[in-house]
Design goal:
Helix content: 55-70%
Order of helices and strands: HHHHHHHHHHH
Number of strands: 0
Number of helices: 11
Number of domains: 1
CATH class: Mainly Alpha
Largest sheet: none
Radius of gyration: 21 Å
Mean pLDDT: 88
Distance between the termini: 61 Å
Structural class: mainly alpha
Low-confidence stretches: 1-22, 301-310
CATH architecture: Up-down Bundle
CATH topology: Heme Oxygenase, Chain A
Shape: globular
Strand content: under 5%
């Protein structure tokens, strides 16, 4: 074994100091918390398009229904953005990440297909959700011409938000208790795969920014996470209020009822706030919270909700 050069010693010392500060992975590569044996599984589920899903499909509650409908209406364009963003990195990544991007892409295409169908059911009940879709497109238009790493940081933030919502839905069945069975299965299936691929975008980020300083990497993704989550969450509230107004609520009534639903009872936003805030910490990685038990928990009961492939 050859002796280390003085530059090697200096470099290793610098990396040790970075590690001691708890900042993101060093610039020599990427250090992932994703379990080594973890794999992405594509579950090509098609849910019953002819099911009589009621207008207020979540427990007969217009408020709960409006919130989930608002989120669902935002997903098709958002997931297309995620796919397009990762495709920009697929030619210069390790083989394992390349395989995972391929599986991620298929998962997200399937999610988009099913939520387009779900959103059509919402529209069939008389709700106007086109403005939500247009609002998402307007927000994504702001990313045009930005560096691809900027768009990747946006994707990290939104995938983190999706993962912690998914964890809540699977870990606490009461969140979907009383919901229409077909609609509930759409959300559980989607949540399972969101958890499964929750670390991929971040691992691509660590590899893509391997030549950045640890401080630049941390500062960029934490700042974008704070800004984009505030924007996305604020828009989902705005759009859910709009859906409640279509049910005859005044804006004041809709706002108070929605805030009570999100922050008081059942209070999903309140309960997951500190989970979301982990993205602002220097040593963040999505798989520092191991959710594989939740993935396995719901891998078998889909048969009743599946219809034959078209």
């Amino acid at each position: 074994m050859t002796d280390q050069t003085s530059s090697d010693v200096e470099r290793n010392t610098t990396l040790d100091k970075v590690a001691d500060r708890g900042l993101d992975a060093p610039a020599t590569g990427y250090s992932s918390a994703t379990p080594e044996e973890h794999e992405l599984i594509v579950r090509d589920r098609r849910f019953d398009r002819k099911a009589m899903v009621p207008r207020h499909w979540h427990s007969g509650d217009p408020v709960a229904t409006a919130w989930y409908n608002s989120v669902s209406a935002s997903l098709p364009r958002g997931e297309a953005f995620f796919i397009d963003t990762l495709r920009m990195f697929r030619d210069d990544i390790p083989p394992k990440l390349a395989r995972e991007i391929k599986a991620f892409t298929t998962q997200e295409i399937n999610h988009t297909r099913e939520h387009v169908a779900f959103n059509r059911l919402v529209s069939d009940h008389g709700y106007n959700v086109e403005s939500i879709d247009q609002g998402i497109q307007a927000m994504l238009d702001l990313t045009a011409g930005r560096p691809k790493e900027f768009n990747l940081a946006i994707t990290i933030a939104l995938e983190h938000f999706a993962a912690i919502i998914s964890r809540q839905l699977l870990a606490k069945p009461e969140y979907l208790e009383g919901a229409d069975p077909v609609a509930a299965e759409v959300w559980r299936w989607h949540a399972t795969e969101e958890i499964e691929h929750k670390g991929l975008v971040y691992d691509v980020w660590l590899h893509a920014t391997r030549d950045w300083s640890a401080w630049k990497r941390y500062k960029t993704r934490a700042l974008i996470a704070a800004l984009i989550t505030k924007k996305y969450f604020g828009n989902r509230i705005r759009d859910a209020i709009g859906l409640l107004e279509q049910d005859g609520y005044s804006r004041r009534q809709a706002k108070w009822k929605l805030y009570a639903f999100l922050w008081w009872k059942p209070g999903m936003m309140r309960r997951m706030f500190f989970e979301w805030a982990t993205i602002l910490t220097p040593n963040f990685h999505p798989w520092k919270h191991d959710d594989r038990a939740l993935i396995g928990k719901l891998d078998s009961p889909y048969a009743d909700a599946v219809m034959p492939a078209e």
